[in-house]
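Entry 14. Ran structure prediction on the chain below.
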Amino acid sequence: MNRMSRRRFVQSTGVLAAAPALTAVTAGAQTQRDAGELRVESDVVFGKGGEIDLLLDVYHPPEGVTPKRMAVVHLFGGGFFVGNKNARYIVSDARALGRLGYTSISANYRLQSEGSWPAQIHDTKAAIRWTRANADGLGIDADKIAVAGYSAGGMLALMAAGTNGMQELEGDGGNAGVSSDVQACIGVYPLANARTATGLFPEGQATPENIAAASPTSYISENFAPTIFIHGTADNTIPVSSSIEFFNRLHDLGVPAALTLIQGADHAFDNDAPDAIDVMARSIDLFLDRLFVDPTPYARFGAGRGTGNGVRR
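Output, structure tokens:
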């Protein structure tokens, strides 16, 4: 498969502004500007899922924003029954992260009706491989790729973060031989256990062993990629306790981890909450920037060092 094979695109309903101008950014490619002034490459074929062409969109930072040369691969939610790369919350989050200098990749993966597990993680890793294979054209560092997943997509993101180097989950979707390792993970109200996604498996194969093999919690170890969780405290679909427990387990193992809780927010709060989206984007930026973009450790607290005004630092 050609590394940069793509379908020409005129306008994507609900994502791009009407009648946008076209601008060439890479050889043979065209982009458009969305309402947030990001440069968008749409419907790029990144691999094959069985007989299905797998598509992604690329959101480049706006002009005038210094690129951080780090990519975030976004995976939509929908319980593995519905959804696609054009999800409203992904567009909103890509805009917010783009204004901070990140390149976002929104990728499709096969739904339950299109392929049984492990098709979904195969497609996820194919999207990561494509991103790494095309790092130069995307203007990113091939060793600075994060994966972000929302709800069911969060299960895939966490799986990718916990299975770096596991060849049995690579699949054959394209760019064979390119690493699918991720340097970081962003779990946005993520599904952490496959118990409630049993429809992923062929009939009769939703065994405890298979469910465990598809559950991110089974792969928690000191080798897990650095991960930040974003979750609403009023989530009635996936309890916030799920992310808190996952964070605690990673933290106890010494894995760099962070947790941002949005007070009062329900599931999929980033569909229409500009203030919460801004908090989320800045939390992600702080996490990624400190670890990968401009590695800067925080100063250690020196207990007992007075400031002269009775306040300790």
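The radius of gyration is 19 Å. Will compare against last week's run tomorrow.
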